[in-house]
Write a structure and sequence with these properties.
This protein is of the alpha+beta class. The protein is built from 9 helices and 9 strands. This is ALA-interacting subunit.
């Protein structure tokens, strides 16, 4: 009888010890100030003085930046000449698509007057409107591997429909794809007082593109040879792609339907009222999709090209902040409110309710 009670007592002690032991499978995380969000933190109280000071600080910083940006943009001299309609003969303007698709030269003479002194270098751009280079099928129609290495010349699986000549796998097009096929092919030449102005076309593309994306051992092959419909310019088959900078510039597709691409640089100063004669070849077909073509001559500033948006944006934000600071100051002076005790804002001031 005694042994039975002893056994029962022992079992009870063991049971109580087991219940008192910590549960090993508990998912409760180990306590730390980080997991419990008890680390020291800056908790600013937005009093009227702090808010007014913050708005004034933003306005004091933004307004001078906006003024400087706007003056820099206004210092840029830019000449824009739209020519896609004027360079079509009057008798052909009712059928512009048929005119532009007819083989042969299509010369056009334009005259530009320089409004202000333009310091070198003067950048020559062509601008296209309503041309969606960001179309998904258009953007994907290229082979980066083929552009980099001559050994990948047959890698044209992503270039359809401009992948091979007449569907023959033994005649791959290099460079393949719709982007290269539609290469811009209008040309420009400039003269002043019957003296030719040289356009420097070296260094107009990104150096990283020339060095890493277009191979020095890759040469154009079977380009613009797929049928009778020619998409754009032809390429010199004796010059590697890394040296064909017009192509490299064109292959960097634009994100918006209106874009400019660099054609070259004029490295002499142009004086006010200089008359520039432009002889261009109007070859590129923008008439099928009602696109526009413009010739742009522009200087640059420390901020880049002519763009008033940045300066206007800074002035708008700075002016708005100054206006709000003024309003809040008047409200604070005319009808002030007594602030409460900020110590009540601490929700965990007494942890555990103690």
């Amino acid at each position: 009888m005694m042994s039975s009670n002893t056994a029962s007592s022992s079992a009870g002690v063991a049971g109580s010890a087991d219940s008192a032991a910590p549960r090993r499978n508990s998912k409760k995380p180990k306590y730390s100030r980080f997991t419990q969000q008890e680390l020291p933190a800056c908790k600013p109280i937005l009093t009227p003085r702090w808010v007014i000071s913050a708005f004034l600080l933003v306005s004091v910083v933004f307004i001078p930046i906006g003024v400087a940006s706007l003056f820099a943009s206004r210092d840029v001299v830019e000449i824009v000449d739209r020519y896609e309609t004027e360079c079509i003969p009057l008798e052909k303007r009712n059928d512009t698509v048929n005119y532009i698709q007819t083989p042969g030269d299509k010369p056009c003479n334009r005259t530009i007057t320089v409004p202000k002194r333009m310091k070198q270098p003067i950048y020559v751009y062509y601008q296209l409107d309503n041309f969606y280079q960001n179309h998904r099928r258009y953007v994907k129609s290229r082979s980066d591997a083929q552009l980099r290495k001559n050994s990948s010349a047959s890698d044209t699986s992503t270039c359809k429909p401009e992948d091979t000549v007449n569907g023959s796998a033994s005649l791959p097009i290099v460079p393949c794809g719709l982007i290269a096929w539609s290469l811009f092919n209008d040309t420009y030449s400039f003269s002043r007082n019957n003296s030719k102005l040289t356009v420097n076309k070296e260094g107009i593309s990104w150096k990283s593109d020339r060095d890493h994306k277009f191979g020095s051992d890759v040469y154009p092959t079977n380009f613009q040879a797929n049928g009778t419909l020619i998409g754009g310019a032809s390429l010199n088959s004796s010059i590697p792609l890394s040296k064909q900078e017009d192509l490299i510039v064109w292959m960097r597709t634009a994100a918006l339907p209106t874009f400019r691409k660099l054609y070259g640089k004029i490295e002499v100063d142009l004086e006010p009222n200089d008359v520039i004669s432009v002889t261009l070849q109007n070859n590129y077909n923008t008439y099928s999709f009602k696109g526009k073509k413009k010739l742009v001559l522009s200087t640059t500033s420390w901020l880049g090209g002519k763009n008033d948006f940045l300066g206007i944006a800074y002035l708008t934000v700075g002016g708005l902040c100054f206006f709000l600071a003024l309003v809040f100051t008047l409200v604070y002076l005319v009808k002030p409110r007594r602030l409460g005790d900020p110590s009540y804002l601490s929700w965990n001031r007494n942890p555990g309710g103690r």
